[in-house]
Amino acid sequence: MEAQENETSSLDEETSSLLNNGSSGEFERPSEFDENEDTRSELKFDRELESAAERKKRELIEQALSNNNSTLKTWQDLAIDPFGLVGDDLRRRIWPLLLEIDPNSLDETPLLAELTKHSEYDQVVLDVNRSLKRFPPGIPYKQRLALQDQLTVLILQVIIKYPHLRYYQGYHDVAITFLLVVGEQLGFSIMERLSTDHLRECMEPTMEKTSYRLTYIYPLLSKVDPQLYEFMERAMVGTMFALPWYLTWFGHSLNQYKDVVRLYDFFLATPPLMPLYVAASLVVERREQVFEEGCDMASIHCLLSQIPDNLDFEAILQRALIYYKNHPPNKLEGEVKKRVKKEAEQRKKEEIRMRRRLNRNNTLWVRFSNKMPSWLVFNYRSRYGLLFATATILLGYYAYYLKTTNSKQTFFGIFNT
Description:
Blueprint: H1 2-16, H2 52-65, H3 72-80, H4 88-98, H5 121-130, H6 141-161, H7 171-182, H8 184-195, H9 208-214, H10 217-224, H11 226-234, H12 243-248, H13 257-268, H14 274-285, H15 287-292, H16 297-305, H17 313-326, H18 329-370, H19 374-377, H20 383-405
Helix pairs in contact: 5-6, 6-7, 6-8, 7-8, 10-11, 10-14, 14-17
């Protein structure tokens, strides 16, 4: 793992000088590149070695693909069960089936040059540049540029087609996963479907609904692990640690590509709020580490924000399924509303307390200023008032100094001794 990180780090350094040139947001290319050349291509990556259990799962999936009686539930069960869809070659065929997308009826993909005028273009390019760690290490330079262009086009194509949807930072982490697995055209169709369904609330002008959804984590924890819930409540941890998990389907927070696509199998086959249940299950998985941090908000937040590579995600996912079955969102909704209302009331009280404190400080200043010479506070808001105040203090100090030392030094002589 350390070697892989070093390779990725060197890749980032190599590419940092080759990315956008600042204001225009265009990717720089070597001089031999034709600016009008369409460098896009479908990227293929070697499949990892599979265990005996994974090979057995692959056989089941291939049998289902050859069976004309397979249904949506067939694909959902295969994606949910341990090992998910096993390999990207199978995901390319089954992910569209999970979303009921016809791979033979896809929109034509525009060129990047046609989209550069969009208001979100510069921000999308910046985020794409930051996503280099999600690219396969050692990818050839020309293919890396092609992948960056493809990702930028895919994202802009969605938000241009649906102008009421707002791009958010982290959306590119979702898009690049589908781009790597299924390619540009099918990746757009999948992102289009998810953006108008699973991710729709995340793409609203404000994060209000996203914050509301994250609140589900605590009522759920109170049901499944009351001790952990009370500990995190006392520490006032909040839900910000889970924000990137929810926005990116954990794609931004996981280091292992295999873990990312496994989770995407699971999320495509389950209800839209399942990432919240996986988040709660992941926190429960690390409960002992949370307790070891002590009841300290910053320490716990830091711990949970970093997901280690050695977690048993199959156990986490299966536990999340049990949570969802026993405590579905509609049963948690009442507690979520109470919690949101309570937090709003606490914020309002805090605002009132802060205003009173400011008013009290202002009142004390008025009392103090009434007892001071008028020439000192006349311009207290300006730099001259500060200058007069400083001069008064220095003169007072000088008088005190002469009195205590019986010195006949001049005023400026004090600073020469």
